Amino acid sequence: MKQVVQNYKSGELAVLDVPVPGCKPGGVLVRSAYSLISTGTELMKVSEAGMSMLGKARSRPDQVAKVMQSVATNGIPATYRKVMGKLDSYTPLGYSLCGVVEQVGAGIDDVKVGDLVACAGNEHALHAELNWVPKNLYAPVPDGLAPRHAAFGTVGSIALQGVRRGEPQLGDVALVIGLGLIGQLVVQLLAASGVRVVGVDPDPVRCELAERLGAAACGEPASAAVEAAVAELTGGHGVDQVYLAAGGGSNQPVELAARLCRDRGRVVDIGKCRLDLPWNAYYEKELDVRFSRSYGPGRYDPEYELEGRDYPIGYVRWTERRNLACFLDLLARGSVDVEPLVSHIAAFDDAVETYQRLKDGDLKAVAVLFRYPEHAREAGEAQAPAVAVPAVNRPSGGAPTPARSANVPVRLAFVGAGNYATSMLLPHLAERDGVMLSTVVTTTALSAANAKRKFGFAEATTDLDAVLGDGSIDAVFVVTRHSSHAELARKALLAGKTVFVEKPLALTEDELAGVLAAVEESGNDRLQVGFNRRFAPLLNEGRKRFSARTGPASLRYLVNAGRLQHGSWYLQQGTEGSRFTGEGGHFIDTASWLLAADPVSLYAVATSGHEDLQVVLRYPDGSTATISYVTTGAPGFPKETLDLVADGKVLRLDDFVRASVYDGRRKRWVSSRLPKARDKGQSAELAAFIKAVRTGGPMPVPLESLVATTAATLAVQAGLAGGAPVTLARAR
Where is the Gfo/Idh/MocA-like oxidoreductase N-terminal domain (predicted)? Predict the structure, then answer.
């Protein structure tokens, strides 16, 4: 079997083939479905392993003291051999997972083969395909709880034990310092207990997440807003408890705790931060400083953990196993939600790369899961589907794209002349200098004649082949019903035309593959899809004012789509695809453009009947975009509102009428006036397209981006059908 290990001396990380553990009495053999990376504890260990010997010694003075004691007892040579032997060995990683019972040891009667269990322990719940887990370190997973959520059981137990040590009561006010994985769980557990919570973290994204998950207010450690929130919630007395869930070498957390805690309040240390207690501050308030030891009573007791000797419930109400079961129950009942904490789900085989990305900062994450895909279905969860993002193959020496002379008009043909073409595209083209509307093609003669008369086309016809064979036509616009887009675009590409196709490019993966096959066959990659919002002037100005970001972003896009009129062809899902498949590419493209990347996975859920749809997209740097596509909203509410949050800044777009950027406590910029009409970018998009046709230069949007957006749009249906996150797998 495979297991993730690290050499503490060299810092090497590896996925090794190791023997399968035996199923001993008093425990069960568990095949992993998901295991959770503790982005605090494990990354600290990974970082320490990469230090020099001196750096390791400085980071672990407790171990140095043990070494010195050994030197005094056993001498330098024996101690050196012992220390080097221990350092130069592989050690395991991981301590929180969910999996399926594969074998039951003697003396176990509370689970059977095939049951789903959550497991704990840094010797028994490792990042490995199989683990032997003793009885008191596993708990059955309640029916209906997703395995990826149950994998949070151990870290949830740590947070739960910390909260128990604080002894909160209804109506209390608590301060949580450090809003990483443990801190976010502590916030939710306190809120579920009737406690009002103020959070502190230097990362504004984590502060925003904690507020969404139940915190009354959050801010940076030195923020006046935090002190103001504490004063307002407590009447100036200070918080009842402070939970230290931070790490690092700063003494700021314990100093802040003393300043904001009430007289005789409690300070609970859950993480591993510096604890140089300011004596006067703690003495004057007579603060009660407590430590929370891992998962709860039983931890580090071999008789409890290894021999299965439970503590009587009348004497010890909450043991580590009972804490584990309690947290799973809270998850199952919806009192705690861990899904928003999942920043990334990686394949187990990619473990080394994932740790490296976390260590280097390329992957910003609160929680990262390893998925063992071959066992996900056995774990009671639908197999996580994957949708391929096909590669764009361009033969060397592809189709030529000669520049047009400035005094020779770009000749355009339109295939289709329906409402969108005649209201949103042709008005921008009819009066544009350097453009000639050559031919309009429709399926009915009268509609072609009407378009010719209204917009000044030179010719009107129903013969598509004649247009595609006309060498004088430079570009073809495909503005027909959705079901014909891919085939018409494919034909136009094969005919050597530059193509503008309205969204969607394709309704199925096979249709998308067909378009790309035409690109490969012809060498013609001159394709644009009508994703116009990235060209909207207000959004471009807002993006410029927002400026570059350094951390991951959180984007929210609300689309108040409204109900369709009875008889609309958009309702013909059997032939024209779902409504989101037809329109959703707009919003995915806008999100990807703002985040400067293509999505790597998505999760989609919908209300009954799929009237309202939520799509959460994840990006390579840990950014997320949530698209709420709803049809049941008020007709008078704006159709599109967007918020982009990162690095303490917010970009706000109000339906392409007003945009603003906030930075700290003030508005950095707000659009100076209301435009006469909403400009969603069609004019600028067409100008960029015509320029590319005239000059032979690059298309306005790279083809790879158009393909990624189309694949993501199609993946939404797969996600709804499978009820699981969808991986967007890039073809090599």
Answer: 411-531
